[in-house]
Specification:
By secondary structure, this protein is an alpha+beta fold. It has four helices and five strands, in the order E-E-E-E-H-H-E-H-H. The radius of gyration is 18 Å and the shape is elongated.
């Protein structure tokens, strides 16, 4: 099996995911998964697509991550892994990934701050007198 790659995005994070058959190693920006994502919940998010398709330990995954925060990065990696698995075998993996919602790109972004206001929608306190 040759190398398969896919792109995952979430908020400002972009993950380029490269999958090849192997022993189940996940390397993110040349660091192991448990070193890059210290929190167990973030490692769980990254592995969700593999667990849904029962392919843990079958593929070596190399990820290049840029931008965003740690939660957005973890979710971007999950989308990238899900898309790459679909490229490998659409009939086998797509139904399980689609049912879990891992193939849907979460398009929510931070709304920009507007001039004359303290935030995007917040207004300064109104004073009648």
């Amino acid at each position: 099996m040759e190398q398969t790659h896919a792109l995952g995005r979430r908020k400002a994070a972009v993950a380029r995911v490269y999958i090849v058959a192997g022993a189940g190693n996940i390397v993110i920006n040349d660091r192991p998964l448990d070193e890059y994502f210290k929190e167990e919940s973030l490692r769980y998010i990254v592995k969700q697509a593999l667990v849904a398709t029962q392919t843990e330990g079958q593929f070596d995954i190399k990820v290049t991550l840029v931008g965003g925060g740690i939660k957005g990065q973890a979710e971007a990696v999950r989308l990238g892994i899900a898309r790459a698995l679909c490229e490998i075998d659409k009939e086998a993996y797509r139904p399980a990934l689609k049912a879990e919602g891992f193939l849907t790109r979460d398009a929510r972004e931070v709304e920009r701050k507007k001039p004359g206001r303290p935030g995007a929608r917040r207004r300064f306190q109104f004073s009648k007198r």
